Amino acid sequence: MRALCCLIAIFLVSPCFAAEEEAGKDRTSYILNKVDDLWRGESSYAVVTMQVKTEHYTRTMRMEGWSKGKEKTLFRVLEPLREKGTMTLKSDNHIYTYLPKTDRTIRLTSGMMMGSWMGSHLTNDDLVKEARLEEDYEAIISFEGERDGQNIIEFTLTPKPDAPVVWGKLMLSILADGYTPLMEHYYDEDMVLARTFTFTDMKMLGGRDRPAVLRVVPSDKPDEYTEFIYETLELNIPVSDVMFTKSSLKRR
C-alpha cells in the first residue's frame, strides 16, 4: 500500500515539476535575450571610446560602429588622427581590416584570429565568435537573492555541444530589477578564470538606462584592462546590408 501511495504521488506531482521546469527555462531564455539585446537590438549605431592599459603602453581610441544581427559589424576609427579611417569589418565568419594610408583591405587569416584586436585585450576571434547567450549556452540560475545590498540573479552557462565558443563556462550576474548586467566571468576549458567583464556607470543610452562603461580585465594580468565607454547608442535603426561588404570599405 505504501508503495502504491508513493507511485500515485509521483504521477500527481510529476506534471507539476515538469511545468515548473519548463517555466524556469522560459524565464531563463527571456532574461538572457534581454541581456543580449541590451546593446545590439536588431541593428545598432554607437560611438565608443576605447582605453587600453597594458604593462608596456596605454592608448585611447574613439570609434563609431554599426551592427546588424550578430553576423555583421563595422567599426571605423575617428581618433587619433594618425589612425582615422581605419576600419574593421566582420561579415559572417570573416574579418577584414581596411588601412586608409595604404588604401589596402586585408582579410585576416586563421593564424591571425587569436591576435589582439586594435591592441586591446579582445582578440579578432572574439569578434567572429560573438555568442548569443540563449542560443549558444545551456543556462541555469545558480543564485537568486540579495548580495552586497542588491537583488541579484546569477546564471551559470555551459556551451551547447555544437556551439562555436571557446569557453568552458560563463558566470553572469545581473540586477533582478531591469536585468542589467553587473559582472561576467569567463572560464577556459580547464575551468580556470580567464577574464572578467564589469559593467558600470549607468547612463541614458538608446532610450533607457544602461551601463555606459564595460571593462575587461585578463586574469593573468590583473593590472591591465581594456575599457569601452559609450557616448551614444541608437538601436533598431535602418542599416543597409551593403555597408557590411568588403567593397564598401574604400567608399566610406
TrEMBL record:
Keyword Signal: yes
Highest taxon of the lineage: Bacteria
Matches recorded under InterPro entries: TP_0789-like
Any Pfam family the entry gives: LolA_like
Keywords from the named record: Lipoprotein, Signal
Transmembrane segments: none
Signal peptide: 1-18
Every Uncharacterized protein TP-0789 domain range: 69-251
CDD domains associated with the record: LolA_like
Name recorded for this polypeptide: Outer membrane lipoprotein-sorting protein
